[in-house]
Write a structure and sequence with these properties.
Blueprint lengths: L5 H11 L9 E5 L4 H12 L3 E3 L2 E6 L2 E10 L3 E4 L10 H23 L11 E5 L7 H11 L5 E8 L2 H7 L5 E6 L19 H13 L2 H4 L1
Parallel strand pairs: 1-2, 1-6, 6-7, 7-8
Antiparallel strand pairs: 3-4, 4-5
């Protein structure tokens, strides 16, 4: 099974989350940028408010496509335990962390502007991305969210590595993975259109969601 694009993946994922529809406690949080088109469709289908939660992957120096960890809003940093034993210079790690913290701050200003984050204390938070490989980025997001005392934390993605879904079930209240193909290889292989989502597209989707959201209008 493959998805045409992220919007279609979001519509299919929403069907698996139908039990959360019309629940006033539910809030949908998208991991930018690829998670935003998916989350937009989920929030629309569930009649839930949409917000963004910024997380940045920490790419392994020289092999940036591989996540050695991730950082999230709230000064949370999660390192990939599979890297134990690798001799990565501390200065190289610090350089990556500093660069990604600056980018995280930039994106928060860019996407949110002067809008305050949605309140999530005592709410059901559904964290959404377009897929999961190692899961380090999503784990960082979930860790940061739990510090804000939500009622429940739910992770939902259209496609993921089976072992990643299994591992994350120990960290949150519910994990919904649309498909877990074997062999997995990479998230993008399961989309016909996996083009990079640019900042303008993120802005357009968030503006559309927020303009229609009575919670934002209060």
């Amino acid at each position: 099974m493959r998805f045409r694009d992220r919007r279609e993946a979001g519509r299919q994922l929403a069907r698996l989350l139908d039990r959360y529809r019309d629940n006033a406690d539910v809030v949908v949080l998208a991991l930018p940028r690829g998670g935003v088109p998916v989350a937009f469709e989920v929030a629309h289908a569930l009649h839930a408010p949409l917000d963004v939660f910024v997380v940045r992957k920490l790419g392994l120096p020289g092999h940036e496509e591989f996540a050695m960890g991730a950082i999230a809003t709230g000064a949370v940093m999660v390192m990939n335990p599979s890297l134990t034993g690798l001799e990565i210079p501390e200065a190289a790690i610090e350089e990556v962390v500093a660069r990604e913290r600056a980018e995280l701050a930039r994106r928060e200003r860019l996407y949110r502007g002067d809008r305050a984050p949605l309140a999530i204390e005592n709410r059901v938070v559904i964290l959404i991305d377009d897929g999961l490989a190692t899961g380090s980025t999503m784990l960082a997001a979930a860790t940061a969210i739990k510090r804000q005392q939500p009622k429940q934390v739910v992770i939902a993605v259209p496609v993921a590595a089976a072992e990643t879904c299994a591992a994350l079930r120990h960290e949150v209240d519910d994990v919904v993975c649309g498909i877990t193909p074997e062999p997995f290889r990479a998230v993008g292989l399961w989309y016909d259109d996996f083009a990079q989502v640019d900042d303008a597209s993120v802005h357009a989707l968030l503006d559309a969601a927020w303009e229609a959201d009575p919670e934002r209008a209060r």
